[in-house]
Write a structure and sequence with these properties.
Shape of chain A: globular
Structural class of chain A: alpha+beta
Oligomer: homodimer
Helix content of chain A: 10-25%
Number of strands of chain A: 10
Distance between the termini of chain A: 23 Å
Radius of gyration of chain A: 19 Å
Chain lengths: 249, 249
């Protein structure tokens, strides 16, 4: 039986989602717990994609196969009882045997949170970027619009990638102002390259502080060269909000 | 020269404010940095009071003596550059040589944050109490009023105290509703006993869920016995907001 799980995690204390030798990862924590629940039979999980060291998730999705038959609430309870407090299973459902958390994903939404007050909020230091340069929000709004559509995003992908096809579609890229010197970028698309959201956000912030003009985004996209775009925004402001699948309402 | 400092800290990773052998404390982190700044001459700091393991501060106050003459901004920069990211100096000022952060404090304000949604917010797990029992806010409002005034708070003090005089004055005790299933208690008084805020909050939550009636607070106060009051609320929802001194506006 194949199970689809939705998980939230605080990425602060992990070296990213993916298992790597000698460091903590979200995947390893979850696989260890599932393996225990299965009496020691090794369980592997397959996520919608990796998240980097320090990046958070409000709705990452993964699947795994099991022969255990437990009700949804029992799965959630059993897993959360053994997982560390910074990883929280939100939902577990039975899915078709050919469901794949990565290959069947049709869209993802990320958000990136920024705090602009002069003094750091020490309680949010791992959960939002503290950015104190004055920002031109009108220019940033304009820049966002140039990213929407289908483009080759090579310029907005870490040079440390082995991805051959860098064409992706951004459906929506918005800025939401919040109270108390906070705002966030919300972006959804059919897929994202390595560091793509962080480079887009970094570039938009560079535009906001005047290092580039909004329509420079067009030549950055056309140039297909990482060195044309702006900085890579730090990991700790970034959240994978949710992943959409074809059968989702 | 005597310096008065205001400091914010995230208490999550510390064993409380006060220096103790073999564990991390806020005091030790700050004294270590100040001693370095003074070229190795041991500097001691004196705070307005201790905070427990896991308790946070938005405006703890301490003082220390120095022969160094630095402008305010230089002090702040020098200390924050060497302090860990969960301790943040907010202000440094020169005060009279007989100022004492503890003995001259005339009032303190604490707040206690609570989250009532069914599912934990993983990003706030160390910063607010997740409390899912249904609460009667009208009864809690009534209970708050019984605490205001001058009383012997023995029933609301940890039995592990050596305090002889347990009479304190509560000036104000309020509940503030926030968006998204959050609320907080805000309490100010001329001083607080060991665990006093946490026991008052725990008792009010017990009243909110029906374990006690609001006016039971009166007999709890009169009885001068810790076993009469309710639970001690967990540390991680509690914040020392600020400390007031006679010369403050």
């Amino acid at each position: 039986m194949r199970m689809k799980c939705i998980v939230a995690y605080d990425g602060t204390n992990y070296n990213g989602y993916q298992i790597q030798p000698n460091v903590m990862s979200i995947q390893e924590e979850i696989e260890t717990v599932l393996t225990k629940i299965h009496g020691g039979s090794r369980i592997q999980i397959y996520a919608s994609g990796r998240t980097d060291k320090g990046v958070h998730a409000k709705g990452q999705v993964f699947h795994f196969d099991t022969s255990l038959k437990l009700p949804t609430q029992a799965w959630i309870k059993a897993m959360n009882a053994q997982l560390p407090s910074d990883i929280l299973i939100l939902d577990v459902t039975v899915v078709a045997d050919d469901f794949h958390a990565r290959y069947d994903a049709v869209a993802k939404q990320y958000s990136y949170w920024i705090y602009t007050a002069p003094v750091l909020d020490v309680f949010r230091r791992n959960y939002e970027l503290h950015y104190t340069y004055p920002l031109d929000f009108i220019k940033m709004e304009e820049a966002l619009s140039y990213f929407c559509g289908t483009y080759d995003f090579t310029s907005f992908c870490s040079a440390r990638t082995n991805q051959l096809d860098c064409v992706r579609t951004i459906y929506r890229f918005e800025m939401q102002r919040e109270l108390e010197n906070r705002f966030c970028f919300v972006v959804s698309g059919n897929g994202f390259l390595y560091n793509m959201v962080r480079i887009m956000v970094g570039t938009i912030l560079d535009i906001g502080r005047g290092r580039f003009q909004p329509n420079d985004v067009l030549s950055m996209l056309a140039g297909c060269d990482r060195t044309l775009a702006g900085m890579t925004a730090p990991a700790h402001g970034l959240y994978l909000d949710f992943v959409t699948y074809e059968n989702d309402k």
